[in-house]
User: What shape does this take?
Amino acid sequence: MIRIHPWIFYAALAASLSFTSSAQGASINVLWYTYADQASEYRQKISQLSKIVHSLPQTDGLSWNLTYWDAGSAAPDFAAFDVLVIESGEAFLTGSANGPPAVPDYDGILDNRAAIEAARGDRTFITAADADFHAIRGDTGNILDDSRSSKGDGKCAPPFTSTDCWDGAVGHLVNAVNWAGSGNGLGIVSFLDGEHPGSFWWTHENSFLRSDLDGYVDYAGSEQNPVINPLQANHPLNRGLSSTGLSNWSTSFHAFFLPIEGYTPIVDSSQRPGWAVAIATSVAPPLPEPKIYRLRGAGAGCTAYLPFPLLRNP
Assistant: This one.
């Protein structure tokens, strides 16, 4: 009889329990907090994205059931949703047609701290990018800023569905929603809380993120050339993304995070070594799919499920 060291068993168990993409045809209930006008380009484009997101190759068919939560409206039943997405404080494209941008309003978030905390699950993603706005514009660092380009000035066209779009703001946004919405409880996705007047809410005294971020976020300067290191590249939040794709959106990231206990850096800063520009609660990235390898000398039925080869029969 062959004895298998306990660490082999636990490695196999970890592999079998690792996070995997949702099965094709599945859906998540997305609650999107917004202060944008109902007739704004912001809402129109986010609604358009929600209708086609399952068709994007990188999403494995995961669809969104989108519900808007308006600033000033009554709070919904947070337990009925898989993820709460909070609009960035960059108010571009949020006004009615030909009107001025809406004024950022986070009273709904601040007034419902206790209810959000009670429903909050194990996955939170916080980015210093206003990726919601940049996704609408189709920003990606893989297309040079060139007004002569048929695709526009450094932007993919059409937004969302062009094959050029994913490695940029669109992928950063969709990966975040799908990852946070696939955990336990209410996932959180928060885009940058700056930089328009009235937008800074992360460390407000009534913010459910205050205890997480207070003293760990700095808004001085910006990051145009973020870094996805090799370890981060394996995380589901960076699926199909590259450092180049997240760069040069005419300001990609607007703030920086120091290391925070319980959070993992997802995208690093090149401007400030040791700082991050996107972070997530520390849910481990998936391990490789386990494969069956027979140990040397093993008899019939004596096999181990391992995520790597070990003493395979010659």
Notes: The first strand starts at residue 27 and ends at 34. The radius of gyration is 21 Å.
